[in-house]
Amino acid sequence: MQADPAWVGRVRSRLSERLESGVDRPIALALSGGGDSMALLRVAADWARDNGRGLLALTVDHGLNPESVGWTAFAREAAHAVGAEWRGLTWSGGKPANGLPAAARRARHALIADAARDAGARVILFGHTGDDVAEADLMRDQGSTLGRVRDWSPSPVWPEGRELMVSRPMLDVGRADLRDGLRARRVPWLDDPANEDRRFARSRARISLLPAGDGGRDEPGRMRGDRRRTDAALPHPPGRLMGVPLPRHLGEGAIALDRSIPATALAVALVCVGGGERLPRGDRLEGLVTRLRSGEAFAATLCGARLEATADGVFITREAGEFARRRVTPLPLQPGVDTAWDGRYLLTVDDPGWSVAPAANRMATLGKADRAWLNALPAAARGPQPVLIRDGPGGAVLAVPAGKARSLVEERLALALDRMSHEREVGAHIHGAMPPNPLF
Q: Which of 14, 21, 200, 236 is 20 to 30 A removed from 251 (C-alpha atoms)?
């Protein structure tokens, strides 16, 4: 029997480091049918079988190529051949004329995240390789805002990616090595022609990093092997990052900070409280850091969040003024269905006829007890609170005191600050089983 290449053992070891064994919960895997995902499929299927886990392969049809139906069928057959469950997902609707790769990437992650969470998975495996790290690094060098490719990180989409971590266990393996392994075992894979389309930045980076003679070039000081690295998360001591206290969730959507907080942790806190996905631009973020370090008292808004620095401390809340600027309309709620609202809360109601909206401009419709609860909060934290509105007569009630809303801010902050290094910790935090954490 032909021996497995050395990288297979390394990938299996990483799966064992991050994933639970013997639990009745599937591991999700993004399966495009390309060489990278096909290689990961085979290793992950063997690991899952040996460790008493189910494997769910998820394939997205972007509807951008007439061959995509055949590609989807190929992926389905490949998943079933190794004993994995499989589900096909479709990116429907109109496609943007500009920014298509970014839109397709977000749609793909969102569809996969929703399907994985619905199946009960907490971790999604992606087949990124060392070549993907090098390509992303080169794109950032050329001005892209693409984030670093990490071996263990939260899902990059929100709120679809809530309660999910992404594992990329092949970041120290080259794309060519994976394909050599597939050829040796006569395993076919698909090649997407879009990977060679120079209209797209990712394709240009991929071609540029090919060795001379293969359609690309080796740039001085940019050796492919040197760039095949991961941006692995540094272990944080409890409640601190580089000697500085981490952001602390205070409840009701508020975060407390230390003025010496690192820029990376500040960016995470702003995005989590603001409920969005996009990290702040470097210049604006550095401007806030400089003002914090100076000891200045000020208020600023960024990423949909409001930062207020006073002599008593530094706090971040959701920026209530954004609701007026965006003219947010009430969001209808379906009975018994968890609905994410504003990227910050998960709401569930038992009967029909309810919608959710911000408390801003609706405080006069609330009852005496709800107004008293609001008034106990800092002024800036009142307007962004979720309010349940009954269709027709019945007034409005605050969702949090009524037990109909759960804050996602704490969970998201813990995920983003690398407080969960294992699958079991993700689930324990979500379901409230973890012991008290100094971070919160």
A: 236
